[in-house]
C-alpha cells in the first residue's frame, strides 16, 4: 500500500494545473493521467483562445507543456487509470488498473467530461478535420463559411447562435419537429436569419476528403435522403462527466457532475476536491479548467495544513 499526501486523478488542464500548484506547495503530488492524457483538448487542433499565445498554439503542445511544467516542479506523473475508489474514510483508498493500491490524504478529481457523439465512422474519421464538439473552441476557423450543428437542446441552440455570428450559414439538424431548448433560446434561433433549422432529420454520414469535411448526408423521417455542403460539423448533443467511480461517495447533480461548495473546489466529502469539466456543466473551457485546478490545489493545501 503506497501512501500519498495529495493524489490527483486526470491529465487535462485542470489536473496538470493542480499538479503545478500542489508541487509548489510541497504537497508531493502524484497524478494519474487516465486513459486520455491531455483530455478533450487532444481532439482539437490549434487553440486560439488560451491566454498568452498571440498566434495560437497546438492543443497537444499546450498539454505537453503543462505536463512538463508540472513534472519539472516535482509532480510524480504516472500513466494508467484509477479503477476503484473507497472514499468512506481517510486516508482514501484507491486502486489502479495495474492493481496497485494507494492511500491518499487528499484527493483532487479532475477526470473531465466526454462529449457525446453520434457514433458514425465518418464522424470519427474527420475528428479535428471539421468535426468538433465545441463551437467556442473551433468556430473561429469557420468564419464566413457554412457549418452544421446537430442537436435540439439549449447547448445546440447556443452553439448555433454563437456560430451564426461568425459563419455565413448555420444548419441546425434536429431529429424531432420541435426544439427541446428553452423558449427564449428557441426564439433566438428561429429569429436569426442565417440559421436554417432542418426538422425531422438525422445524420447518415459526414462527407469529406483529404482536406476535411465537405458536407453531410441527412435522412428525413419520411425517408428522403439529401446532402448539404458544409465546412464544419458541430455535434451538440451533450457531455458526460467522468464521475461514475466517485458518485457513490460524493454528491453529484442529476447529470452526474460533481457538486462543489460555492466557488471552492470542496465536494461533499471532506478532503476530496473536484476541478475542471467533471464539475463544470456550464463553461467547459481549458482556461476555466486550469483555473479550477489552481483552486483545487490551494484548497487541498489548506485542508492538509489544517
Task: Characterise the protein shown here.
Strands 1, 2, 5, 6, 7, 8 and 19 form a seven-stranded mixed β-sheet that branches. The protein has a five-stranded parallel β-sheet with strand order 10-17-11-12-13, covered by helices on one side. The chain has 306 residues and is an alpha/beta fold. The chain contains seven helices and 19 strands.
Do you know the CATH topology of the largest domain?
FAD/NAD(P)-binding domain
**Which second-level CATH architecture of the largest domain applies?**
3-Layer(bba) Sandwich
Percent in helix: 10-25%
Q: If helices are DSSP runs of H or I spanning 4 or more residues, what is the number of helices?
A: 7
Our Rg estimate from Cα atoms comes to: 21 Å
Low-confidence stretches: none
Provide the succession of SSEs: EHEEEHEEEEEHEHEHEHEEEEEEEH
Q: Which CATH class of the largest domain?
A: Alpha Beta
DSSP strand count: 19
Short description:
With 306 residues, the protein is an alpha/beta fold.
Annotate the secondary structure layout.
Layout: E1 2-9, H1 13-24, E2 30-32, E3 46-47, E4 57-58, H2 59-72, E5 76-78, E6 82-86, E7 92-96, E8 101-109, E9 113-115, H3 121-125, E10 131-132, H4 135-138, E11 146-150, H5 154-164, E12 169-173, H6 183-190, E13 195-198, E14 201-209, E15 212-220, E16 225-229, E17 232-235, E18 239-241, E19 272-274, H7 286-305
Parallel strand pairs: 1-2, 1-8, 2-5, 8-19, 10-17, 11-12, 11-17, 12-13
Antiparallel strand pairs: 3-4, 6-7, 7-8, 9-18, 14-15, 15-16
Amino acid at each position: 500500500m503506497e501512501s500519498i499526501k495529495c493524489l490527483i486523478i486526470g491529465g487535462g488542464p485542470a489536473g496538470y494545473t493542480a499538479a503545478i500548484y500542489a508541487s509548489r506547495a510541497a504537497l508531493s503530488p502524484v497524478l494519474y493521467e487516465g486513459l486520455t492524457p491531455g483530455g478533450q483538448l487532444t481532439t482539437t487542433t490549434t487553440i486560439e483562445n488560451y491566454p498568452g499565445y498571440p498566434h495560437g498554439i497546438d492543443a497537444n503542445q499546450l498539454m505537453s507543456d503543462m505536463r512538463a511544467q508540472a513534472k519539472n516542479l516535482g509532480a510524480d506523473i504516472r500513466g494508467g487509470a484509477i479503477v476503484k475508489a473507497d472514499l468512506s474514510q481517510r486516508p482514501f483508498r484507491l486502486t489502479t488498473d495495474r492493481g496497485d493500491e494507494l492511500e491518499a490524504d487528499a484527493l483532487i478529481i479532475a477526470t473531465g467530461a466526454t462529449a457525446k457523439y453520434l457514433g458514425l465512422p465518418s464522424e470519427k474519421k474527420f475528428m479535428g478535420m471539421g468535426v468538433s464538439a465545441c463551437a467556442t473552441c473551433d468556430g473561429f476557423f469557420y468564419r464566413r463559411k457554412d457549418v452544421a450543428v446537430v442537436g435540439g437542446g439549449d447547448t445546440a441552440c447556443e452553439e448555433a447562435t454563437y456560430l451564426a455570428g461568425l459563419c455565413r450559414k448555420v444548419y441546425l439538424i434536429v431529429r424531432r419537429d420541435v426544439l427541446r431548448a428553452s423558449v427564449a433560446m428557441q426564439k433566438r434561433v428561429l429569429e436569426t436569419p442565417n440559421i436554417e433549422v432542418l426538422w425531422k432529420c438525422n445524420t447518415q454520414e459526414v462527407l469529406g476528403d483529404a482536406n476535411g469535411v465537405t458536407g453531410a448526408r441527412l435522412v428525413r423521417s419520411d425517408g428522403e435522403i439529401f446532402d448539404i455542403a458544409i465546412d464544419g460539423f458541430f455535434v451538440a448533443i451533450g457531455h458526460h462527466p467522468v464521475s461514475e467511480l466517485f458518485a457513490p461517495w460524493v454528491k453529484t447533480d442529476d447529470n452526474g457532475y460533481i457538486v462543489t461548495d460555492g466557488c471552492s473546489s470542496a465536494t461533499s466529502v471532506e478532503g476530496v476536491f473536484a476541478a475542471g469539466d467533471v464539475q463544470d456543466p456550464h463553461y467547459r473551457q481549458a482556461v476555466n479548467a486550469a483555473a479550477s485546478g489552481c483552486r483545487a490545489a490551494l484548497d487541498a493545501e489548506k485542508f492538509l495544513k489544517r
